[in-house]
Structure formats: C-alpha cells, structure tokens
C-alpha cells in the first residue's frame, strides 16, 4: 500500500514573494508565513474541519521554501474553501521567548477565515499535547469573489455623526427580537433589524469585536461573549454566521456592511490590537507564540526572575506593536478591512498600548500610530482611540497624531458626577458641554475630536447607572472582584428594580438628562445599545461572559419604554441636522466657541455660580448660521429653582423639559410652545432647553 501522502498531486513549488497568508490564484494557492527561528514548517491540508488528521502534509524545505524569515509554498490543486493549518518546529525555551511546539496545529496569522470544530478545546492547546483533532483551522478565501454592487464608503462628516455602540450577537439573540431562530445573533440577523437603527437615527454603528475570537477564554462554564480575546486579525468571527459553511462568515459580514451602507449607516469596528487570546505564560498556543513569540509579544525580566510576558492589557500578554512584523500585521489588517470588507472606521481598544516600545516604555512618536494615520489606504477612515491602557497610561487629550479622535473618559465621569449631585461639578460640566476645551483646545482640532459618552459596553448601562450604587457581578464567577468599582452611579433610593413610582419617575428623568447632555454637547456623541429603551444587566458592569438574556437586547423594552425611545429619536434627529459649516470651514474648537456667542448664567442672568456648592448652570448660545438661539438650564439640585431668562425678540419657546412625561418632554422645534418671559421654573434634577428663531 503506498504511503498516505504519495505524490499523486501536482508538485508544489518553492518560494514566491508577495503577500502573507493564503493567496489563491490561477496556478493554485500560495501560502506565506513569517517565522524567524523555526527550523521547519509543515503545511497541513484538511478535507473537513472535524477531521482528526490532515488529508495531506507538505513539509517545507528550508532550502527551497524559505528566504530570509519567510516561508512560502505554492500548491497547485488548492482553491478557496480549503481548510488548512501549520506545524512549526523549533526550540521550546520560554527563557529566551522561544515557544515552538510541533504538536500544535497553528493558525495562519494572515488567515482570512477560521473554522472551529465542534470538539474545539482550549485546554488541549498547552505544551506537548497534540491537538489536531480539536484545533481551529484556517480557510483559504478568494476575496475577489464577491459583488459589492457599487458599494463605497459613506464619509459622513463628524459634525453629523452619532455612534451606536452595539454587539452583533446580543442585538438579535433574544427570542423577542422577532428574528428567525437560525439568524438570531448573526450578521444576517442584524440586517433584519436595520430599520430600527434607521428609525433611531444613528449614523454609525460601532461593533464590538468581530475579529475571530476564542469564546472559551472565560471562567469555567462561561463564554467570552464580548469578543475581546482575538485569535485572528483578518477573519470575521464565524460564530456570528448563520451558515456552517467555513466561508459563510466572510460574505455574510460583507452583506451586512453593504446593507448598512444602503441604509446610510457607517460601520466602525472595535479592534483589539493590544493582546490575543493566547494569554499569559501558561496560556494555550493558538497561533502567534508558536510562530515567533519574541516578535509578537512584549516580554519583561523582573530582577531575579525568569523572562515573562509583559501585561499592559490586563489579560496576560501584550502585543509588541513596535516590532516591524507586528506593525505590518496591524497595518495590513486595517487595510484589509477597509479595502476588502468596506468598513468605515475603527475604535482601538486600549490604544495607548500601541504607543509603548518593546520594553513597555511610552514613545514620544510611536511609529505604528503614525503609520496608521498617514497610510493612503486609510485616508478618510474614522480613527478612534481608547486613549488609556491597563498598565497606567492615560493619554486623553495627549494622544499622538492629527486625525485620531478619542473616547473622552473625562466627559463620562464629569457628567455622571454632575447628574448624581456631586458638589463642585458646574465648572467641569461647562467644559464638557463645550467639547472639553480644557483638554483639547491646545491641539487646534475640530470639536468632534472628543467622543462624548456616558455609558459603553464596559460598565453600567444607562438604566443601571441610575438604578444601582454598586456593581453586582457575582454571575461572572469571580466573586465580584471583576469590573470597575468607580461607577459614579446612584440608585435613587433603592438598589435595583423598584415599584415605587417616585423612584422610577426620577430614574426616567435622569436617563433623559444624560441623553440630553450626551447629544447636545459639542463633540461626537456615542450611545450604548439599548440605552434608548433602558436595557438592564441587573447591575452587572462587566457582562463580558454573559451570553444569555442578561447580556442580550430584550426587544420587549421597545414597547415598554416607547416614550423614552421617542425622546431619544427626536434628540438624535436634531443632532444629525446640525450644520456642517464647522467642517467645511475647517474651524477648530477655539474658533467654533467664539462664533457660537456663548453666555453663561446661574439662576440669575450673567452671574454663573462656579462655587463648590453650586449645582445649577445656564447657557445661551446661537447656531453657527445665526438663525436660531438656544437657552439651556441645568438644575442638578434637589429642589425646583427659578431661572431668569434673557430677552428674546420673538419670545422663547420650550423645546425640551426632561421633568415632563412623554410626549411633553420633547417636541419638534417648530412646534415648541411659548415660554412666559422673565423667568422659568426648572424642576429639581432636570434640564430645560428653550429656543427662538429671532436674533
């Protein structure tokens, strides 16, 4: 009987230069990988993802298939859909950052798709345990085999951008979504719910990670649901595909992007280039550490201790973004998602890690960040930084570059503090309303550099922010140690759900207050999925492992909180109608504030109270075109207060009053009712906005 891998196939060819990854073409598929210290590489071809052994093994000869640190082989009879993996041979010496393990099937770092067997077991990925039967495998993808039907980036101006941060799986997985069972929690399921996003009025969805991630990277019995455990930087997560076809996720994700674009909605991806699911020193080998541990990860050697992984991400390892191979990986990944998947922007998780050198020290001019900003393929793409990391770097207001926008953590904290009644917050609130000039004005950048948010995936939902004094994370299995302790929340008299109409009425009012402050402040507003209908996580502020109703969008809330949804829609509608004059004239924040003609007040005109005991503030401002004036009154005190009103030739009209029930809480601008002159009584802990068309 001939050997299993007898030469019945066309002969493979040696090294060919070109792109990394698996590239199909007329002559077959060329596989290229980087590994500086591997002594041998085997390409494994599988017929099915569930197979316990490869159907074919091609051993790469270092003399024929390697040039410098790159291994390459062209296999004539391989096309799109082929399932494959690698074994890399070399030394196992963690003391020198060498972690080769030929018992492991490795993913292609540039693989465009990943197939996961039903028997996948993260525990079988540790050193010395053969995992061919249970390993994830890469899949060859022909990226040209898709009809985009003329799809192009939307390029929505930042001045009219409203971001909706959402989770692909959580959005439609709940049975109440109305999505067919096989499409719940998938890209296709989200497509069915695009009309809801259109009616809400958001211009951009910011998707929690869709790069393929390891769902088993979580406490026992739980699932890593959020996706901050990346395995591949090119492959869309197959768990969000409605089809078992290994290539299904690629086209289904592109269907989603195309459908969102047709609806006028941009796609921003939350990308995790700061760590991987391979974890710390005792973590599993999936891909990168098995190819080039020293290149892909930062290491440190504390005095008198062995070499170990640096952990500026809080997850066990940190990508070494200052290494040229990793820099190229990140840039190639971003280009791929823009060119081949048509996404409109990226939000970089723990972006400050990208500004560290190989030893973890902050860099003045980090090359990878300038590479991203200056790359012509990425020109015009929205770039958003979470400008801090788990290692202590906090760069809000000082993040490098001329195009990056930043999650403004100061906005979140100061707005929360003012609304919950913390003393001494009127001055901070004033700054946040005006685009945070104390943080950003020195850069002479547009107001939209500040991404204004009060809630995001990481922390309380808006409902829980006004319903809980402390986190309740016991369901995560970490004895409530996980999640942030600094929530700046207030339960208004009862921890959790309440039947007391007084408490519930105040919570609803505070939710409206927080939405107004987010939408009306200068900057780019972002809201969290479900906040518009008071979605709750029962006080869990770190629901990353809750792939269950706790973490899902309950669509019954849409009807239950229809009044709040109406309020949010009308706020967003007014926000997206803002003039683009600031961008067209390239006005920086300081110039913009000058043109707005701002006047500050307290309860008395022209006498703002900036003292620590103050809880109220008023502001008169004009639209850039001069056609409309607005008067904002913020009462953060526990009692009703009378606010003096400035004169208005045509009289003031009441547009927003967060103390009123729906539909009186907000009306169309053109239907705002007359406000008596002289003064306006503002209910405790509420916001009133008046408007006039006369100058």
Question: Reading side by side through the largest sheet, how are the strands ordered?
Answer: 12-13-14-17-18-19-20-21
User: What is the third-level CATH name, the topology of the largest domain?
Assistant: TIM Barrel
- Mean pLDDT, as a whole number? 94
Question: How many strand segments?
Answer: 29
Fraction of residues in helix? 10-25%
Q: Can you say what the CATH homologous superfamily of the largest domain is?
A: Glycosidases
Estimate the global geometry from the Cα principal axes: elongated
How many distinct domains?
A: 3
- Nearest-angstrom radius of gyration? 27 Å
How would you explain this protein's 3D organization?
It is a single chain. This protein folds into three domains: 21-139, Immunoglobulins (Immunoglobulin-like, Sandwich); 159-570, Glycosidases (TIM Barrel, Alpha-Beta Barrel); 597-692, Golgi alpha-mannosidase II (Immunoglobulin-like, Sandwich). Mean pLDDT is 94; it is low at 1-7. It is elongated. The protein has 695 residues and is α/β, with parallel strands linked by helices. The strands form seven sheets. The chain has an eight-stranded parallel β-barrel.
């Amino acid at each position: 009987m001939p050997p299993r891998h007898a030469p019945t196939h066309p002969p493979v060819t040696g090294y060919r230069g070109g792109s990394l990854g698996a590239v199909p073409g007329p002559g077959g598929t060329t596989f290229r990988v980087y590994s500086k210290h591997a002594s041998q590489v085997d390409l494994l071809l599988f017929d099915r993802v569930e197979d316990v052994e490869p159907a074919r093994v091609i051993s790469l000869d270092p003399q024929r298939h390697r040039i410098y640190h790159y291994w390459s082989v062209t296999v004539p009879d391989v096309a799109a859909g082929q399932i494959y993996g690698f074994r890399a041979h070399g030394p196992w010496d963690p003391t020198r950052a060498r972690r080769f393990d030929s018992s492991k099937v490795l993913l292609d770092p540039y693989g465009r798709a990943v197939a996961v067997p039903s028997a996948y077991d993260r525990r079988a990925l540790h050193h010395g345990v053969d995992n061919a039967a249970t390993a994830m495998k890469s899949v060859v993808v022909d990226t040209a085999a898709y009809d985009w039907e003329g799809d192009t980036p939307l390029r929505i101006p930042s001045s009219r951008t409203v971001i909706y941060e959402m989770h692909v799986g959580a959005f439609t997985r709940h049975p109440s979504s109305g999505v067919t069972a096989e499409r719940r929690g998938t890209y296709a399921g989200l497509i069915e719910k695009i009309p809801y996003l259109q009616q809400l009025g958001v211009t951009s969805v910011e998707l929690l990670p869709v790069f393929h991630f390891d769902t088993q990277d979580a406490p026992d019995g739980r699932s890593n649901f959020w996706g901050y455990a990346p395995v591949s930087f090119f492959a869309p997560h197959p768990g969000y595909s409605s089809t078992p076809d290994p290539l299904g996720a690629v086209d289904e994700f592109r269907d989603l992007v195309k459908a969102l674009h047709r609806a006028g909605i941009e796609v921003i991806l939350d990308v995790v280039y700061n760590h991987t699911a391979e974890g710390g020193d005792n973590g599993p080998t999936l891909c990168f550490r098995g190819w080039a541990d020293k290149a892909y990860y930062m290491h440190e050697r504390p005095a008198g201790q062995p070499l170990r992984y640096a952990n500026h991400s809080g997850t066990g390892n940190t990508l070494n973004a200052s290494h040229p191979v990793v820099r190229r990986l990140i840039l190639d990944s971003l280009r791929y998602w823009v060119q081949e998947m048509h996404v409109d922007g990226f939000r970089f998780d723990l972006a400050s890690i990208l500004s560290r050198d190989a030893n973890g020290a902050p860099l003045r001019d980090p090359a990878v960040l300038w590479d991203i900003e200056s790359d012509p393929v990425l020109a015009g793409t929205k770039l958003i930084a979470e400008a801090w990391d788990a290692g202590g770097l906090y760069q809000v207001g000082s993040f490098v570059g001329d195009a990056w926008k930043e999650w403004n953590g100061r906005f979140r904290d100061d707005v929360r503090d003012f609304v919950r009644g913390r003393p001494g917050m009127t001055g901070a609130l004033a700054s946040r309303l005006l685009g945070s000039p104390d943080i950003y004005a020195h850069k002479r950048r547009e107001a939209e550099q500040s991404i204004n948010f009060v809630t995001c995936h990481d922390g309380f939902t808006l409902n829980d922010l006004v319903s809980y004094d402390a986190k309740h994370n016991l369901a995560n299995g970490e004895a409530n140690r996980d999640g942030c302790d600094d929530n700046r929340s207030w339960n208004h008299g009862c921890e959790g759900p309440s039947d007391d109409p007084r408490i519930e009425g105040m919570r609803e009012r505070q939710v409206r207050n927080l939405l107004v402050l987010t939408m009306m402040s200068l900057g780019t507003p972002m809201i969290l999925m479900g906040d518009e209908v008071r979605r709750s996580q029962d006080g869990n502020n770190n629901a990353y492992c809750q792939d269950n109703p706790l973490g899902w969008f309950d669509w019954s809330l849409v009807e239950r909180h229809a009044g709040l949804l109406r309020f949010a829609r009308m706020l967003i509608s007014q926000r997206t109608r803002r003039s683009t004059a600031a961008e067209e004239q390239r006005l920086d924040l300081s110039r913009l504030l000058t043109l707005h003609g701002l006047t500050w007040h307290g309860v008395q005109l022209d006498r703002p109270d900036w003292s620590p005991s103050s809880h109220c503030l008023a502001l008169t401002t004009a639209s850039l075109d001069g056609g409309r004036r607005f008067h904002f009154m913020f009462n953060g005190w526990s009692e009703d207060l009378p606010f003096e009103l400035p004169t208005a030739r045509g009289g003031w009209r009441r547009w927003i009053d967060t103390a009123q029930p729906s539909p009186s809480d907000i009306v169309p601008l053109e239907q705002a009712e007359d406000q008596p002159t002289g003064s306006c009584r503002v209910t405790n802990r509420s916001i009133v906005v008046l408007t006039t068309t006369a100058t």
